[in-house]
Amino acid sequence: MKRVTFIGGGSAALISSILIKQRDPSIDVFIIEKDKKLGRKLAMTGGGKCNMAPMDDDILAYNLESHDLLKDLYHDINLDSYFTYLSEVGIETKTIKDYGYYPTHESAPQLVKNLTHRVRKLGIHVINDELVDIEIVNHNPSLYKLICKDSTYESEYVVFATGGMNDKMVAILEKLDIYLDGFHNGLCPIKLKENVSNLFGCRFMANVTLKENGKPYKKYFGEVQFKKDGLSGIPILNLSSDILRRFYNDSSLYPQIEKPISGCLDDFEIIVGLPEKYFNDISKKGYGVQSKDFLMKYFKEEYVDYLLCKHNVNPQEIVTSKNELVLSQMMLKESFHVDSFYGQEFSQVTVGGIPLINITKDFENKHIQNTYFVGEMLNVDGYCGGYNLRFTITSSIKCALSILKR
Protein backbone atom coordinates (compact mmCIF):
# COMPACT_ATOMS: atom_id res chain seq x y z
CA MET A 1 0.00 0.00 0.00
CA LYS A 2 1.37 3.42 -0.99
CA ARG A 3 1.67 5.86 1.90
CA VAL A 4 1.67 9.64 1.57
CA THR A 5 2.49 11.77 4.60
CA PHE A 6 1.85 15.51 4.89
CA ILE A 7 3.97 17.52 7.30
CA GLY A 8 1.64 20.29 8.46
CA GLY A 9 -2.13 20.39 8.67
CA GLY A 10 -3.06 23.64 6.97
CA SER A 11 -4.99 24.41 3.80
CA ALA A 12 -2.53 22.63 1.50
CA ALA A 13 -2.59 19.38 3.46
CA LEU A 14 -6.35 19.42 4.03
CA ILE A 15 -7.29 19.92 0.38
CA SER A 16 -4.65 17.77 -1.31
CA SER A 17 -5.01 14.88 1.15
CA ILE A 18 -8.76 14.81 0.49
CA LEU A 19 -8.17 14.94 -3.26
CA ILE A 20 -5.72 12.03 -3.13
CA LYS A 21 -7.86 9.86 -0.87
CA GLN A 22 -11.09 10.48 -2.80
CA ARG A 23 -9.50 9.61 -6.13
CA ASP A 24 -7.57 6.59 -4.85
CA PRO A 25 -8.88 5.15 -1.56
CA SER A 26 -6.11 2.51 -1.60
CA ILE A 27 -3.50 5.14 -0.74
CA ASP A 28 -2.73 5.42 2.97
CA VAL A 29 -2.72 9.14 3.79
CA PHE A 30 -1.29 10.68 6.96
CA ILE A 31 -1.24 14.28 8.24
CA ILE A 32 1.27 15.14 10.97
CA GLU A 33 0.28 18.39 12.68
CA LYS A 34 1.74 19.69 15.94
CA ASP A 35 -1.39 21.72 16.84
CA LYS A 36 -4.42 19.96 18.27
CA LYS A 37 -6.64 21.35 15.52
CA LEU A 38 -6.13 21.29 11.77
CA GLY A 39 -6.30 24.49 9.72
CA ARG A 40 -5.62 26.93 12.56
CA LYS A 41 -4.24 29.65 10.27
CA LEU A 42 -6.85 28.98 7.57
CA ALA A 43 -9.62 29.56 10.12
CA MET A 44 -8.41 33.15 10.60
CA THR A 45 -7.83 33.96 6.93
CA GLY A 46 -9.45 37.03 5.40
CA GLY A 47 -10.78 38.34 8.69
CA GLY A 48 -12.66 35.07 9.14
CA LYS A 49 -14.22 35.07 5.67
CA CYS A 50 -11.37 33.34 3.79
CA ASN A 51 -10.50 34.85 0.41
CA MET A 52 -9.85 31.75 -1.71
CA ALA A 53 -8.56 33.63 -4.76
CA PRO A 54 -8.34 37.14 -6.26
CA MET A 55 -10.55 38.14 -9.15
CA ASP A 56 -7.71 37.43 -11.59
CA ASP A 57 -4.27 35.84 -11.53
CA ASP A 58 -2.08 38.92 -11.57
CA ILE A 59 1.46 37.55 -11.56
CA LEU A 60 2.78 41.01 -10.69
CA ALA A 61 1.19 40.68 -7.25
CA TYR A 62 3.89 38.11 -6.42
CA ASN A 63 7.63 38.39 -5.86
CA LEU A 64 9.69 38.58 -9.03
CA GLU A 65 11.47 35.25 -8.49
CA SER A 66 8.17 33.36 -8.69
CA HIS A 67 6.83 34.71 -12.00
CA ASP A 68 8.06 31.94 -14.32
CA LEU A 69 6.76 29.17 -12.06
CA LEU A 70 3.41 30.90 -11.59
CA LYS A 71 2.89 31.47 -15.31
CA ASP A 72 3.12 27.71 -15.89
CA LEU A 73 1.12 26.81 -12.79
CA TYR A 74 -1.77 29.16 -13.50
CA HIS A 75 -1.79 28.09 -17.13
CA ASP A 76 -2.18 24.44 -16.11
CA ILE A 77 -4.70 25.19 -13.34
CA ASN A 78 -6.52 28.38 -14.27
CA LEU A 79 -9.25 29.84 -12.08
CA ASP A 80 -11.99 27.74 -13.69
CA SER A 81 -10.01 24.54 -13.10
CA TYR A 82 -9.13 25.71 -9.60
CA PHE A 83 -12.78 26.07 -8.63
CA THR A 84 -13.57 22.68 -10.14
CA TYR A 85 -10.98 21.08 -7.87
CA LEU A 86 -12.32 23.01 -4.88
CA SER A 87 -15.81 21.78 -5.63
CA GLU A 88 -14.48 18.22 -5.78
CA VAL A 89 -13.28 18.48 -2.17
CA GLY A 90 -16.53 20.13 -1.04
CA ILE A 91 -15.78 23.85 -1.34
CA GLU A 92 -18.25 26.02 -3.27
CA THR A 93 -17.37 29.66 -3.88
CA LYS A 94 -18.89 33.01 -4.77
CA THR A 95 -17.59 36.49 -5.51
CA ILE A 96 -17.97 39.40 -3.10
CA LYS A 97 -17.89 42.69 -5.00
CA ASP A 98 -14.42 42.99 -6.53
CA TYR A 99 -12.63 41.59 -3.50
CA GLY A 100 -12.28 38.02 -4.77
CA TYR A 101 -13.73 34.54 -4.34
CA TYR A 102 -14.98 33.31 -0.98
CA PRO A 103 -16.70 30.17 0.33
CA THR A 104 -20.44 30.49 -0.18
CA HIS A 105 -20.97 30.49 3.61
CA GLU A 106 -18.33 33.27 4.01
CA SER A 107 -16.88 31.59 7.07
CA ALA A 108 -13.26 30.44 7.35
CA PRO A 109 -13.94 28.51 10.60
CA GLN A 110 -16.83 26.68 8.91
CA LEU A 111 -14.58 25.88 5.94
CA VAL A 112 -12.01 24.30 8.26
CA LYS A 113 -14.74 22.40 10.08
CA ASN A 114 -16.10 21.01 6.80
CA LEU A 115 -12.66 19.98 5.53
CA THR A 116 -11.71 18.39 8.85
CA HIS A 117 -14.96 16.41 8.86
CA ARG A 118 -14.23 15.12 5.36
CA VAL A 119 -10.67 14.18 6.36
CA ARG A 120 -12.00 12.08 9.25
CA LYS A 121 -14.77 10.55 7.15
CA LEU A 122 -12.31 9.43 4.47
CA GLY A 123 -10.12 7.70 7.02
CA ILE A 124 -7.12 10.01 6.61
CA HIS A 125 -4.88 9.53 9.63
CA VAL A 126 -4.30 12.70 11.66
CA ILE A 127 -1.32 12.54 14.01
CA ASN A 128 -0.98 15.33 16.59
CA ASP A 129 2.79 15.33 16.80
CA GLU A 130 5.79 17.40 15.70
CA LEU A 131 8.42 16.31 13.20
CA VAL A 132 11.92 16.54 14.65
CA ASP A 133 13.95 14.68 12.03
CA ILE A 134 13.74 12.82 8.73
CA GLU A 135 15.93 10.02 7.41
CA ILE A 136 16.18 8.51 3.95
CA VAL A 137 15.88 4.73 4.34
CA ASN A 138 15.89 3.88 0.62
CA HIS A 139 16.43 5.95 -2.52
CA ASN A 140 14.82 3.72 -5.14
CA PRO A 141 12.12 2.90 -4.34
CA SER A 142 12.02 5.81 -1.95
CA LEU A 143 11.26 5.27 1.72
CA TYR A 144 11.54 7.85 4.47
CA LYS A 145 11.61 7.58 8.25
CA LEU A 146 9.78 10.45 9.91
CA ILE A 147 10.92 10.90 13.48
CA CYS A 148 8.45 12.81 15.63
CA LYS A 149 8.48 13.69 19.32
CA ASP A 150 6.23 10.81 20.35
CA SER A 151 6.59 8.22 17.57
CA THR A 152 8.22 7.26 14.26
CA TYR A 153 6.60 6.66 10.87
CA GLU A 154 7.69 5.43 7.47
CA SER A 155 6.34 6.79 4.20
CA GLU A 156 7.07 6.45 0.48
CA TYR A 157 5.96 10.03 -0.22
CA VAL A 158 6.49 13.10 1.95
CA VAL A 159 4.79 16.45 1.33
CA PHE A 160 6.12 19.39 3.32
CA ALA A 161 3.22 21.82 3.83
CA THR A 162 4.07 23.53 7.09
CA GLY A 163 3.27 27.08 6.02
CA GLY A 164 5.57 29.57 7.74
CA MET A 165 9.15 28.57 8.42
CA ASN A 166 10.90 28.31 11.77
CA ASP A 167 14.41 27.43 12.93
CA LYS A 168 13.47 23.81 13.71
CA MET A 169 12.19 23.19 10.20
CA VAL A 170 15.24 24.91 8.69
CA ALA A 171 17.50 22.52 10.63
CA ILE A 172 15.53 19.49 9.38
CA LEU A 173 15.72 20.67 5.78
CA GLU A 174 19.45 21.33 6.00
CA LYS A 175 20.00 17.70 6.93
CA LEU A 176 18.49 16.90 3.53
CA ASP A 177 20.84 19.45 1.91
CA ILE A 178 17.89 21.78 1.30
CA TYR A 179 18.79 25.40 1.97
CA LEU A 180 16.63 28.50 1.96
CA ASP A 181 16.85 31.89 0.30
CA GLY A 182 16.47 33.23 3.82
CA PHE A 183 13.04 33.78 5.36
CA HIS A 184 11.23 36.52 7.23
CA ASN A 185 7.71 37.41 8.34
CA GLY A 186 5.81 39.19 5.57
CA LEU A 187 2.39 40.84 5.34
CA CYS A 188 2.63 41.95 8.93
CA PRO A 189 2.14 45.21 10.86
CA ILE A 190 5.07 47.63 11.04
CA LYS A 191 6.50 49.07 14.22
CA LEU A 192 7.30 52.78 14.08
CA LYS A 193 10.04 54.90 15.60
CA GLU A 194 7.47 57.53 16.56
CA ASN A 195 5.53 57.16 19.81
CA VAL A 196 1.98 56.45 18.64
CA SER A 197 0.67 54.76 21.78
CA ASN A 198 -2.10 57.36 22.17
CA LEU A 199 -3.33 56.62 18.63
CA PHE A 200 -4.27 52.99 19.32
CA GLY A 201 -7.54 52.25 17.54
CA CYS A 202 -7.45 55.26 15.19
CA ARG A 203 -8.21 54.28 11.61
CA PHE A 204 -9.04 56.02 8.34
CA MET A 205 -8.88 55.57 4.58
CA ALA A 206 -5.63 56.96 3.25
CA ASN A 207 -3.05 57.15 0.52
CA VAL A 208 0.01 55.30 1.76
CA THR A 209 3.41 55.78 0.13
CA LEU A 210 6.61 53.92 0.91
CA LYS A 211 9.70 56.03 0.39
CA GLU A 212 13.24 54.70 0.19
CA ASN A 213 15.99 57.26 0.60
CA GLY A 214 13.40 59.98 0.11
CA LYS A 215 12.12 58.61 -3.20
CA PRO A 216 8.62 57.09 -3.63
CA TYR A 217 8.88 53.33 -4.06
CA LYS A 218 5.33 51.94 -3.65
CA LYS A 219 1.87 53.48 -3.30
CA TYR A 220 -1.44 52.06 -2.05
CA PHE A 221 -4.85 53.25 -0.96
CA GLY A 222 -6.83 51.67 1.85
CA GLU A 223 -7.60 51.72 5.53
CA VAL A 224 -4.70 52.25 7.93
CA GLN A 225 -5.01 51.28 11.57
CA PHE A 226 -2.84 52.43 14.45
CA LYS A 227 -1.58 49.88 16.94
CA LYS A 228 0.07 50.74 20.25
CA ASP A 229 3.49 50.99 18.65
CA GLY A 230 2.89 50.85 14.92
CA LEU A 231 0.63 50.67 11.88
CA SER A 232 -1.52 47.95 10.34
CA GLY A 233 -4.13 47.63 7.60
CA ILE A 234 -3.88 46.11 4.13
CA PRO A 235 -1.68 48.88 2.65
CA ILE A 236 0.76 48.52 5.55
CA LEU A 237 0.84 44.73 5.31
CA ASN A 238 1.68 44.99 1.62
CA LEU A 239 4.39 47.55 2.36
CA SER A 240 6.03 45.21 4.87
CA SER A 241 6.51 42.64 2.11
CA ASP A 242 7.67 45.34 -0.31
CA ILE A 243 10.42 46.33 2.11
CA LEU A 244 11.54 42.73 2.59
CA ARG A 245 11.54 42.10 -1.15
CA ARG A 246 13.94 45.02 -1.53
CA PHE A 247 16.43 43.17 0.66
CA TYR A 248 16.02 39.98 -1.35
CA ASN A 249 16.37 41.75 -4.69
CA ASP A 250 19.64 43.34 -3.57
CA SER A 251 21.45 40.91 -1.29
CA SER A 252 24.16 43.51 -0.66
CA LEU A 253 21.62 45.46 1.42
CA TYR A 254 21.33 42.67 3.92
CA PRO A 255 22.95 39.35 3.03
CA GLN A 256 21.44 37.34 5.91
CA ILE A 257 17.79 38.27 5.76
CA GLU A 258 16.67 35.46 8.08
CA LYS A 259 18.11 37.39 11.02
CA PRO A 260 16.15 40.29 12.58
CA ILE A 261 16.47 43.32 10.35
CA SER A 262 15.83 45.97 13.00
CA GLY A 263 18.33 48.77 12.58
CA CYS A 264 18.58 48.19 8.83
CA LEU A 265 15.43 50.11 7.98
CA ASP A 266 16.55 53.71 8.35
CA ASP A 267 16.14 54.34 4.62
CA PHE A 268 12.40 53.60 4.71
CA GLU A 269 9.65 56.12 5.45
CA ILE A 270 5.86 55.75 5.30
CA ILE A 271 3.77 58.72 4.16
CA VAL A 272 0.12 58.60 5.26
CA GLY A 273 -2.61 61.03 4.29
CA LEU A 274 -5.97 61.77 2.74
CA PRO A 275 -6.27 61.92 -1.07
CA GLU A 276 -4.95 65.08 -2.72
CA LYS A 277 -8.46 66.31 -3.49
CA TYR A 278 -8.85 67.26 0.17
CA PHE A 279 -6.22 69.99 -0.19
CA ASN A 280 -8.87 72.34 -1.59
CA ASP A 281 -10.95 71.84 1.55
CA ILE A 282 -8.42 73.89 3.50
CA SER A 283 -9.29 77.08 1.65
CA LYS A 284 -12.96 76.24 1.01
CA LYS A 285 -13.88 74.99 4.47
CA GLY A 286 -10.96 75.84 6.72
CA TYR A 287 -10.25 79.56 6.48
CA GLY A 288 -11.44 81.28 9.61
CA VAL A 289 -11.82 78.04 11.56
CA GLN A 290 -9.59 76.96 14.44
CA SER A 291 -7.00 74.37 13.36
CA LYS A 292 -8.18 71.62 15.70
CA ASP A 293 -11.84 72.09 14.82
CA PHE A 294 -11.01 71.92 11.12
CA LEU A 295 -8.85 68.77 11.36
CA MET A 296 -11.45 66.98 13.48
CA LYS A 297 -13.76 67.01 10.48
CA TYR A 298 -11.48 64.33 9.00
CA PHE A 299 -9.70 62.52 11.86
CA LYS A 300 -10.31 61.27 15.38
CA GLU A 301 -9.36 63.69 18.13
CA GLU A 302 -6.42 61.54 19.28
CA TYR A 303 -4.82 61.74 15.85
CA VAL A 304 -5.52 65.46 15.55
CA ASP A 305 -3.86 66.11 18.92
CA TYR A 306 -0.86 64.04 17.80
CA LEU A 307 -0.50 66.03 14.57
CA LEU A 308 -0.83 69.43 16.26
CA CYS A 309 1.70 68.55 18.93
CA LYS A 310 4.19 67.05 16.45
CA HIS A 311 4.06 70.10 14.19
CA ASN A 312 3.92 72.58 17.09
CA VAL A 313 0.62 74.09 15.99
CA ASN A 314 -1.66 75.80 18.50
CA PRO A 315 -5.07 74.04 18.43
CA GLN A 316 -6.80 77.40 18.54
CA GLU A 317 -4.77 78.90 15.69
CA ILE A 318 -7.03 80.15 12.90
CA VAL A 319 -6.60 78.55 9.48
CA THR A 320 -5.33 81.03 6.88
CA SER A 321 -3.34 81.00 3.67
CA LYS A 322 -0.21 81.45 5.78
CA ASN A 323 -0.50 78.12 7.58
CA GLU A 324 -2.33 76.02 5.00
CA LEU A 325 0.89 74.31 3.85
CA VAL A 326 1.51 73.02 7.38
CA LEU A 327 -2.07 71.78 7.57
CA SER A 328 -1.79 70.12 4.17
CA GLN A 329 1.36 68.33 5.38
CA MET A 330 -0.56 66.96 8.36
CA MET A 331 -3.62 66.00 6.34
CA LEU A 332 -2.03 64.61 3.19
CA LYS A 333 1.62 63.74 3.80
CA GLU A 334 2.27 62.83 7.41
CA SER A 335 5.57 61.00 7.78
CA PHE A 336 6.31 57.91 9.90
CA HIS A 337 9.59 56.01 10.12
CA VAL A 338 9.97 52.23 10.04
CA ASP A 339 11.58 50.68 13.10
CA SER A 340 10.90 46.93 12.73
CA PHE A 341 8.24 44.31 11.97
CA TYR A 342 5.79 42.50 14.18
CA GLY A 343 6.47 38.83 15.00
CA GLN A 344 5.40 35.60 13.33
CA GLU A 345 2.07 35.45 15.17
CA PHE A 346 1.01 38.62 13.30
CA SER A 347 2.43 37.54 9.93
CA GLN A 348 0.27 36.26 7.10
CA VAL A 349 3.04 34.91 4.85
CA THR A 350 6.75 34.10 4.72
CA VAL A 351 8.98 36.17 2.47
CA GLY A 352 11.81 34.00 1.15
CA GLY A 353 11.90 30.21 1.45
CA ILE A 354 13.06 27.23 -0.57
CA PRO A 355 14.62 28.33 -3.90
CA LEU A 356 12.35 27.55 -6.84
CA ILE A 357 15.31 26.39 -8.93
CA ASN A 358 15.28 23.18 -6.87
CA ILE A 359 11.57 22.43 -7.48
CA THR A 360 9.89 20.80 -10.49
CA LYS A 361 6.65 22.04 -12.03
CA ASP A 362 4.90 19.37 -9.92
CA PHE A 363 6.56 20.79 -6.77
CA GLU A 364 8.76 17.76 -6.28
CA ASN A 365 12.31 18.29 -5.08
CA LYS A 366 14.64 17.77 -8.05
CA HIS A 367 17.26 15.97 -5.97
CA ILE A 368 15.19 13.88 -3.54
CA GLN A 369 12.63 11.55 -5.10
CA ASN A 370 9.00 11.65 -3.93
CA THR A 371 9.59 14.63 -1.63
CA TYR A 372 7.36 17.62 -2.31
CA PHE A 373 7.23 21.20 -1.05
CA VAL A 374 4.10 23.32 -1.42
CA GLY A 375 2.73 26.68 -0.40
CA GLU A 376 4.40 29.13 1.91
CA MET A 377 7.58 27.09 2.34
CA LEU A 378 8.63 28.09 -1.16
CA ASN A 379 10.06 31.43 -2.22
CA VAL A 380 6.66 32.65 -3.41
CA ASP A 381 4.74 35.41 -1.70
CA GLY A 382 1.90 37.63 -2.85
CA TYR A 383 0.06 40.69 -1.64
CA CYS A 384 -3.16 40.64 0.41
CA GLY A 385 -6.31 39.68 -1.45
CA GLY A 386 -6.31 35.90 -1.86
CA TYR A 387 -3.05 35.62 -3.79
CA ASN A 388 -1.22 33.54 -1.20
CA LEU A 389 -4.04 31.09 -0.53
CA ARG A 390 -4.59 30.71 -4.28
CA PHE A 391 -0.93 29.70 -4.70
CA THR A 392 -0.82 27.47 -1.62
CA ILE A 393 -3.88 25.46 -2.63
CA THR A 394 -2.99 25.31 -6.33
CA SER A 395 0.55 24.11 -5.63
CA SER A 396 -0.87 21.40 -3.37
CA ILE A 397 -3.35 20.33 -6.05
CA LYS A 398 -0.53 20.07 -8.57
CA CYS A 399 1.44 17.98 -6.08
CA ALA A 400 -1.54 15.68 -5.41
CA LEU A 401 -2.08 15.09 -9.14
CA SER A 402 1.58 14.16 -9.51
CA ILE A 403 1.40 11.61 -6.68
CA LEU A 404 -1.79 10.09 -8.09
CA LYS A 405 -0.03 9.50 -11.43
CA ARG A 406 2.78 7.47 -9.82
Describe the structure.
With 406 residues, the protein is α+β, with helices and mostly antiparallel strands. The protein has helices at 11-23, 67-76, 79-88, 108-122, 167-175, 234-249, 279-286, 291-295, 301-310, 324-332, 387-405, and strands spanning 3-7, 28-33, 93-96, 100-103, 125-128, 131-139, 142-148, 152-155, 157-160, 183-186, 190-192, 203-212, 215-226, 230-232, 268-273, 334-341, 349-352, 371-373. The chain folds into two domains: 3-181 and 353-405, FAD/NAD(P)-binding domain (3-Layer(bba) Sandwich), CATH 3.50.50.60; 186-341, no CATH class. A hairpin with a 3-residue loop joins β3 (93-96) and β4. The longest helix has 19 residues, at 387-405.
Which regions have little confidence, pLDDT < 50, spanning 5+ residues?
A: 251-260
- Written as H for each helix and E for each strand, in order along the chain, the element string is EHEHHEEHEEEEEHEEEEEHEHHHHEEEH
The chain-level mean pLDDT equals 91
Structural class: alpha+beta
CATH topology of the largest domain: FAD/NAD(P)-binding domain
User: What's the structural domain tally?
Assistant: 2
Name the CATH superfamily classification of the largest domain: FAD/NAD(P)-binding domain
The largest sheet has its strands arranged as: 11-14-13-12-15-16
Largest sheet: 6 strands, antiparallel, barrel
First CA to last CA: what distance?
A: 13 Å
Number of strands: 18
> Gyration radius, to the nearest Å?
24 Å
Strand content: 15-25%
CATH class division of the largest domain: Alpha Beta
CATH architecture of the largest domain: 3-Layer(bba) Sandwich
Instruction: Specify the helix fraction band.
Output: 25-40%
Question: Tally the helices: what do you get?
Answer: 11
The outline comes out as: elongated
